[in-house]
Design brief:
Blueprint: E1 13-26, E2 29-42, E3 46-50, H1 57-64, E4 72-77, E5 80-81, H2 87-97, E6 98-101, H3 113-118, H4 128-141, H5 157-169, E7 175-179, H6 187-204, E8 207-211, H7 215-218, E9 223-228, E10 231-232, E11 237-238
Parallel strand pairs: 3-8, 3-9, 6-7, 7-8
Antiparallel strand pairs: 1-2, 1-4, 4-5, 9-10, 9-11
């Protein structure tokens, strides 16, 4: 199908990125990172972003998540152009619309699993009982309801990442962003986490944007896009199609 054309069965875009540029400043030196990035992400998509180190993929993820701000261009998530928001407005928007899954889990060591999951809910108007119920549900969804009173040090790496996923989904965010979510896991645990992300996408319709350097991880996504030296490769590939995947 031609770029820009739509069929009646096309999903609505949840993310629309237009003419995005980003540079970093190191003293008087300007280091360009992203050049004129334009693409869409459909609601309920599972997108993998790949590229060599320094290609700009994590920078792009941070821009989509409202962690960083672009120099030029627009990023619309749902009905909001987040590039127009102030830092305070962005913080509020992130709390309500973005779930984060990190490579190193970022759990609070002195908090139990359920307390870690509950953290994002403290920024909402939910009561203490409602926060507990939501957190228990999220842990049940990742198969860890029996470990909710354990501390991170008492959990395996794979279990810690599942707690992190529960924390990411507990607010029912618009998008899930995952930065190398299996980078610190052994192969078996990594496959379990990726299978869980597939289920969240397929069964709950979660829109997932994942940065990864691992072609095997990318195969779990539906769509694969490549960044190379700050430029988006215009060739859009199905991540499950091994015959088209050059990696």
């Amino acid at each position: 199908m031609e770029r820009g054309s739509k069929s009646p069965n096309d999903k609505q875009n949840i993310v629309e990125i237009r003419n995005l540029y980003k540079s970093y400043h190191r003293g008087s030196l300007v280091v360009p990172v992203l050049y004129d990035i334009t693409f869409d992400i459909a609601a309920g998509e599972f997108l993998a972003l790949m590229g060599p180190s320094g290609s700009g993929k994590t920078t792009l993820l941070n821009l989509l998540a409202g962690i960083d701000k672009a120099d030029k261009g627009s990023i619309r998530v749902g009905d909001m152009d987040i590039t127009t928001l102030s830092e305070t407005e962005l913080a509020h928007w992130r709390a309500n619309h973005v779930g984060f899954i990190f490579q190193f889990y970022n759990l609070i060591p002195v908090l139990k699993a359920i307390e870690n999951v509950e953290l994002p809910l403290h920024l909402t108007s939910l009561s203490k009982r409602e926060r507990r119920e939501h957190s228990e549900t999220a842990l049940r969804m990742v198969g860890l309801e029996h470990r909710m009173d354990h501390y991170p040090k008492e959990l395996s790496g794979g279990e810690q990442q599942r707690v992190a996923i529960a924390r990411a989904i507990v607010t029912d965010p618009t998008i899930l962003v995952a930065d190398e979510p299996t980078g610190d896991l052994d192969r078996v645990s990594a496959e379990e986490i990726l299978a869980m992300m597939e289920r969240l996408n397929a069964e709950m319709g979660k829109t997932i944007i994942m940065v990864t350097h691992d072609p095997r991880a990318a195969q779990h996504a539906k769509i694969l896009r490549h960044l190379e030296k700050g430029y988006l490769n215009d060739t859009l590939k199905g991540a499950h199609d091994d015959s088209q995947n050059p990696l």
